[in-house]
Structures are given as structure tokens and as C-alpha cells.
Amino acid sequence: MGAAAAAAGGSMYVFGGRNGVDMTAGSMDDLHAFDSATATWQLVAPAPGSAVPPARSYHTMTAAGGKLYVFGGCGASGRLNDLWRWVWRCTQRASCMQLEGLRPCAATRGVGR
User: In angstroms, what CA-CA distances link 68 with 13, 22, 26, 52, 60?
Assistant: First the structure.
């Protein structure tokens, strides 16, 4: 519940969400990839040493320019106003994605406050 998804490179990616149906259920911080060619799911592990976005639910996720973006949502300490980008380090495969934290632009500052 409260997860976000986007499609890129022949796969659908799902990030975050809640462990249950009520607001006291914990949020998740994992990224899963569904390969439409093989109809299989894979957990996408972050590259060694890369930061991981905080667990969240009710966020947005989109794909643009061969990258995946996650923005905002509800975290353990309240609403989030952060932007994260997954970048493929090689051919668009879930096994070679790197995560980068980004600063929201001025137009998004204050959103959700």
C-alpha cells in the first residue's frame, strides 16, 4: 500500500510502500524490478557505498531520460521533501543501477510543509 511504480527499459520498478493497511504500519525502502520479458521479479540492491533513500510511502516515482526518480512521500518522521535518482551504470539492467540523492529545485521547497 502506498508504493510507487514507473516503467523503464522493458521493466517496471516499484519502490517503497507500507507493510500494512493502517498508518502505523512501517514504510519500506526497497526497489523491485519486474522484467516484462521473463515475467520475473528481482530485488534491486543499491550499489556498494551508495546512499539509500529513507523508507517511505505515498510518494511519486517516474522515469525520464533513462533514469528513475522518487520524490517526497511520508517517512517515519513525517512528510519528506527529497528527490532521489537511480542511474544505470551499464545497459539498462536492474543489477547495475546506482542511486544518487538530489536536492529539490527551489520550486519544490516547502511542498508538504
Answer: 9, 28, 23, 14, 11
Using the 8-state DSSP alphabet, how is residue 56 labeled? B
CA distance 5 to 3: 7
Bridge partner residues of 79 (DSSP)? 74
Q: Are 46 and 96 spatial neighbours (Cβ–Cβ below 8 Å)?
A: no
- Going from the C-alpha of 29 to that of each of 4, 21, 70, 105, the distances in angstroms are 11, 17, 11, 23
Q: What are the chain's domains?
A: 4-108 (2.120.10.80)
User: Rounded CA gap, 93 and 82, in Å?
Assistant: 25
| CA distance linking residue 13 with residue 22, whole number of Å | 24
Q: How high is the pLDDT of residue 52?
A: 79
Condensed to tens digits (0 to 9), the pLDDT of residues 60-98 reads 999 998 888 999 998 888 899 888 888 766 555 555 556
1 vs 73: which has the higher pLDDT:
73
